[in-house]
């Protein structure tokens, strides 16, 4: 279950990068 949180964090980070562009 800890992996899911890590992946969620990565997805959120990528989402923020996408919004920046």
UniProtKB/TrEMBL annotation:
<protein>
    <submittedName>
        <fullName>2-keto-3-deoxy-D-manno-octulosonate-8-phosphate synthase</fullName>
    </submittedName>
</protein>
